[in-house]
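[worker-b] picked up task from shared queue
[worker-b] task type: protein-ligand structure
[worker-b] ligand name resolved to adenosine-5'-triphosphate; SMILES cross-checked against name lookup, match
[worker-b] sequence length check passed
[worker-b] input payload:
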Amino acid sequence: MLEADDLALERGGRQLFSAISLRVNAGELVQIEGANGAGKTSLLRILAGLSRYGFSGQVRRRAPQLFLGHHSAVKGLLTPRENLAWHVSGEAGNSGAEIDQALAAVGLYGYEDVPSHTLSAGQHRRVNLARLYLSRAPLWLLDEPFTAIDRVGVTALETRLAEHLGEGGAVLLTSHQTVAVPHPLRSLDLATGLLT
Ligand SMILES: Nc1ncnc2c1ncn2[C@@H]1O[C@H](COP(=O)(O)OP(=O)(O)OP(=O)(O)O)[C@@H](O)[C@H]1O
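[worker-b] inference finished, payload out:
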């Protein structure tokens, strides 16, 4: 679903990474690993097509994608329901009932109509994660999806990832934590470029 060859990125006079090549196939999860500042977010944005300059190498995406950034794209003045309606209007076009089901799936039942700025950090993140229950894109690129999520939420997210992989989807994510899914899982070490 996604192929990248010989990617390299220099920022502020520093070589963040080089010689990064990878393939992500249907049913596979690839975790990008590296220290703080190693360039994981930068790489994910390049793979998503969100950074067009300043890097070398080639990226080919062969399927529609969903990109969820580390910095939440949830508007504080809008409610969770309104935020999701806005996001899906340009993508899957889900119904109001589907949006409410997605919010319930991430534990936000009862919070559908409050201004999002009144939510906790973890609840704020969950509004974003609700998009994983609405998107029809086969290729998911997720930047630190577990950040600020409690243990029950982590398990629910792993279950959702497993469902997606079981349906033939693919996931590429950055995370500092071990991800538990019963599917092929590979790690890309940014420091060495090794995919294991
Ligand atoms: N727009 C930018 N201009 C200049 N430097 C940048 C820019 N974006 C990122 N950087 C720098 O690139 C480096 C890598 O950042 P990046 O966010 O990709 O790292 P990361 O591996 O995701 O880190 P973390 O684990 O802390 O989230 C950092 O040193 C950062 O300051």
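[worker-b] attaching auto-annotations
[worker-b] The first strand starts at residue 2 and ends at 11.
[worker-b] releasing lock
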